[in-house]
Amino acid sequence: MTKTITSTNQQGDSLFILIKSLSKSEKRQFNLYIGRLGGNVDAKFFALFKILEKQKTYDEKAIIKSGVVSKQQLSNLKAHLYKQILTSLRLNPAHKNIRIQIREQLDFATVLYLKGLYKQSLKLLEKAKNMAIDSEEKNIAYEIIEFEKIIESQYITRSINTRADELTVQAKKLSQQNLITSKLSNLSLQLYGILLKTGYVRNDEELKKVNDYFNSRLPKYDFKTLGFREKLWLYKANLWHSFLTQDFLLSYKHANKWVSLFKSDSKNISLHPVFYLKGINYLLESLFFIKHFNKFKEEFALFEDGIKNQTIPKNSNTEILIFQYYYANLLHLHFLEGTFKEGEYLVDIITSKIEEYKGLLDNHHVVVLYYKIACLYFGMGDNKNCILYLNKIIKSKNLHVAEDLQCFARILSLIAHYESGLDYYLEIQFKDTYRFLLKMENLQEVQKEFISSIKSLGDVFPHQIKNEFKKIHARLKVFEHHPYEKRAFLYLDILSWLESKIENKTVAQIIQEKFKQLSK
Asked: 393 burial class (0-12, 13-18, 19+ CB within 10 angstroms)?
């Protein structure tokens, strides 16, 4: 279990964060590792480890005061301790993934080569190469082949001619595959960065820009020759493109291909569990966006089974991803069903997990969960708690991505303030929200229409209020399936809220009625 990091003061100290992330078994192994040589237990780096292990927050003054190390020596001692901990972790069976195993064989082969034992070195390299190719670690496989070439040029065998041809063909094939993988991964990463920074495309100009970017950088390929890695990056790149352009049906298709790639050969789930988990998350997210409830529930149940049956390997990395994806999509399930109140128990679980993983979760994923919690409270009619969680997003100083999320957090806050009758704060909210949207250049027709409509409600007589809500609903309804404006309804179900005001029902009741139609 990953340990909690409880303060922001120590965030810049990598050594402290590493020590606090160690499990009990990892600490026990480190003690055994440094105890192999008697002198190590008395070494200064071990004394420093003991001090840092006990500290709740990183305190450099206390370290110096202990007399273990001088201020001038501290930097070097910390670097040495950091290296020793990593060496110990590398020896831990729990961290022996396929890449480390291959690298280990490569290291052994290098040692044998340096001793002039060329034949033994080649034997280990062949074993490592086969492992690398079987597990789709083609960059390492190419590196091994290049090493084999060096040794073959020094260790003359009877089959040098055929051996040279064999290695040349292998190197050429891997080089071509690695080149395609590199181009696809670069494209995928760039598209993902655009999605995080600016969100979905907002007009024809942005659509053209994204399409031109995608098409100009998509490498030519023969699908029949693509291996697992190349296909994975191809599906990823296509997924981000379809997300950016708001073609969520296409997003579902690419995410489904992504997940099916793993299901067709289950060994890839254990070899690349992070990629598998991400694929599941985007599959569920796509299904949520297109409101395909039955398929969403089916895929979510499979995800739950994978967690319970431990078909997804458990480590610190996957543990955090499972937390994020499982609870985000469990909230989505309640949103689709309109069972907001029944999902309230999740808030305590999610917030405690956020605290537990504080030093390991990036701010973006935290605020995404906060926004979903705010939506849960809004659906329950608990506007006070809705505003509380929205403020965590609005007042966040370190959020440099997810502009869309910031914008819609402010719009939902407007609604929650209106529902709460907080007229004084509402006027401030109008000004702040409008100013923020203009600054972000994120003011669209749906947002303009909605903000001006809510603001004008203050001048409407009570007996006219329902009719005014009908007018607002009619004006916004036309944007529901608009190529660019529809993104507003992904972040916030404004129409269901308006319908609740018109029909004098709760938001939950309106969504539950829609859910009955969806699930038929």
From this structure: buried
**Is the CB of residue 299 less than 8 Å from the CB of residue 332?**
no
The pLDDT tens digits for 175-199 are 999 999 999 999 999 998 888 777 7
Question: How many other β-carbons are positioned within 10 Å of the β-carbon of residue 98?
Answer: 18
Q: CA–CA separation, 138 vs 144, rounded Å?
A: 10
Q: Please give the residue that has the higher pLDDT: either 55 or 41.
A: 55
Is the dihedral angle over the CA atoms 9, 13, 17, 19 positive or is it negative? negative
Buried b (16+ CB within 10 A) or exposed e, 311-337: ebbeebebbbbbbbbbbbbbbbbbbbb
- Residue 56 to residues 4, 67, 343, 358: CA-CA distances in angstroms? 10, 19, 34, 14
CA atoms within 13 A on the CB side of 178: 14
Nearest CA to 327 out of 311, 313, 315, 343 is that of 343
CA–CA distance, 387 with 109 (Å, rounded to integer):
60
SS3 call for 145: helix
- The C-alpha R_g of the chain, in whole angstroms, comes to 28
Going 305 to 307 to 308 to 309, the CA torsion angle's sign is positive
Confidence class for position 41, pLDDT limits 50, 70, 90? low
Is residue 99 within 8 Å of 137, Cβ to Cβ? yes
Token pair recorded at residue 83: 């290296």
Q: Which two tokens mark 272?
A: 């690349």
Nearest to 486 by CA among 331, 338, 290: 290
Q: Which residue is associated with the tokens 């505003």?
A: 387
